[in-house]
Amino acid sequence: MKALGLFNHQPKANNLLSYALGNVYYQAEDYDRALTTYQKITDPKLQADAYLMMGQTLMAKKDYQHALVWALTAQEAQPELPAANLLVANILLALGNNQQAYDYYQKVIKLDPAQGAAYFNAGLTAMVLGKPYANLFVTAKKVDATYFKQHQQQLSDIEKMLAAQSGSADESAKS
């Protein structure tokens, strides 16, 4: 904090320090202070990154609507940045907008074919949407086996939910 005061007359250094301090607050899960710090950044080169971090911070707070605003702002500033597109996709998924999330996951996959999380989550959304999904999970496991293993329970839970929905739909059709 003291360092920021020392660089008040050097905007570039002040912006870099503010961004770094915001990251420290984010890592410490002091999200309100992180947001306040990121909002002080005025350097156009750092602003897009600050927007991305504000989106991530608000997502961590489960404030998905506001997180989406900042994530989309970051994505518009850097449309080819996989991290920005992945954040938008993850927030859309959290909001239950499966089709839009799927579209953004596909964009991430095109931008960076080594994104295992994008393949996995695209597979989840495809499964919910009734689209082909098996190859997405195969690729997710190939690209990032650790992520796949960590999130395999999520896949099982969704498979059970869809099977239960299918079963209740079958029962309704019989009645």
Tell me what you see in this structure:
The structure is a single chain. The chain has 11 helices and no strands. Helix 2 runs antiparallel to helix 3 (31-38), helix 2 packs parallel to helix 4 and helix 5 (64-77) packs antiparallel against helix 6. The longest helix is centred in the last third of the chain and has 23 residues, at 152-174. The model has no long low-confidence stretch (mean pLDDT 89). By secondary structure, it is mostly helical. It has 2 domains: 1-78, Serine Threonine Protein Phosphatase 5, Tetratricopeptide repeat; 98-175, Serine Threonine Protein Phosphatase 5, Tetratricopeptide repeat, CATH 1.25.40.
Name the descriptors:
single chain, 175 residues, mainly alpha, Serine Threonine Protein Phosphatase 5, Tetratricopeptide repeat, 11 helices, elongated
